Amino acid sequence: MKRLVVAIAILLAASAASAEDVVVLENGREARGKIVEETDAGVQLDVGAGKMFYPRAMVREIRRGAAPAQAPAAAPTADAAGAADSRDDYSLLYDDGRRVGTRTVRVAKTATGFRFEEEIVLLDEKGAPAKRVHTTERCDAEFLPVSFQVRETSGDAEHRMTIGETRGGRLYVTSMKGGDKTIRDEALPAPDARFPFAAREMFLRRSAALGGKFEAKVYDLADELWRATSYAEAGTKPVEENGAALTLRVVQRKRGDVVEREWVDARLGAHMAELAGERLRALGSTMDVVGRVKSGDGDRATGPESAARTRYVDADAGFRIGKPDPSWTFEPPAVRGAGALVSIRNAPVFAYVDVFTDPAAPEDDTPERAGEALKRTCRAAAPDFNVVRDGFVGEGAARFYWFEATATTKGEKTKTLGRIVLRKGATFRLLAACPEAGFDLLRPEFEKIFASFKPL
Prior knowledge:
This protein is mostly beta strands. The chain has helices at about 1-15, 195-205, 285-295, 300, 365-380, 440-450, and strands spanning about 20-25, 30-40, 40-45, 50-55, 60-65, 85-95, 100-110, 115-125, 130-140, 145-155, 155-165, 170-175, 180-185, 195, 215-220, 225-240, 245-255, 260-265, 270-275, 280-285, 310-315, 320, 330, 340-345, 350-355, 385-395, 400-410, 410-425, 425-435, 455. It has a 15-stranded mixed beta sheet with strand order 13-12-11-10-9-8-7-6-20-19-18-17-16-15-14. Strands 23-24-25-29-28-27-26 form a 7-stranded antiparallel beta sheet, with helices on both faces. A 5-stranded antiparallel beta sheet has the order 4-3-2-1-5, with no helix packed on it. A hairpin with a 6-residue loop joins strand 26 (about 385-395) and strand 27. The longest helix has 16 residues, at about 1-15. The termini are far apart.
């Protein structure tokens, strides 16, 4: 009897697996899977790796219990070591340092390729969810485009839906917005046409085989245009997360004049991603934190943290200053008093930039006098402090003094970059320092921080 029950269960499972529901669309394409919901608004179909919604206006016919289509064999791939077949990335979105939403990206390897899903939730000024943009994308085993769907909603209202599918070397796009529907098609820019998530995934997995560079025509789902896009390896980035030191892979994407970076781990999970140049950044978080922020509970999610901020403004002291990326954090000065204002630190590489004022400086201070005073202060702290290069830049009120020096700090050889800025009767001192071995690598970031300094 027990064997009979098992045999019947196997037969029932086989019968269920051998039948599919088919949604025939107006453009002739067939979507296969299991219908989980059918309403006057449309049909929701479980396609195995997730659910797709098809509005009633796009559906020509529904066939239940049809014979399954034979899936083509997936082509072998040479993926990066450690790459996960499926993964979820959770992050918080920051616009110029202000938290504006959440982002969840899911990647799933399927029998025929990959499925990508992105959910972006944008917050209003009070931190409550205001808009959701849900994107689903599919590609084959060679990352060539198959289909995409973008749904944009606000509250219970659906503002926009766009569905794209490829057939016979053409892309068929149906868009619905405000009750209006448009249908168009165009030839794929063969042979390098890709959808955005597929292009990124292909480079992340096959960078070594591609020689660290990849170029393609990528379809921008926001404005529905094909753009020349390139990916390239851009070195590594040491970071510190939860007290642990990590070395992440830096990937650079270029779209026209816009250059964006990502910090990626061995699983291909993103710890930081720039989505619109440097301004809009997604910083890695956890499912729990993202869930709370999405529900409008923002204060408990992150607390006071400066990694996401791009600039520091001190209205009382009269200045503002920025930092290159989230590996730098704004910190209180290590030594209080003596004009110390703020410290910008990069803990993994033992680098810092300190901002001071000179409270003893006269109102008619000059860059020459201020420079000599700063060098005397540095020699008092490190007797072997030695200026190897210095000079003046600019004219008139914009003129400033700079120097490069060596010293021994706590028994370690260091290099220092200094700058004196005089504005409105105030003398500002900027000092950047790091171990001597890392100075050449860090100097561009020091210079960027210095250049961002502006008296108010």
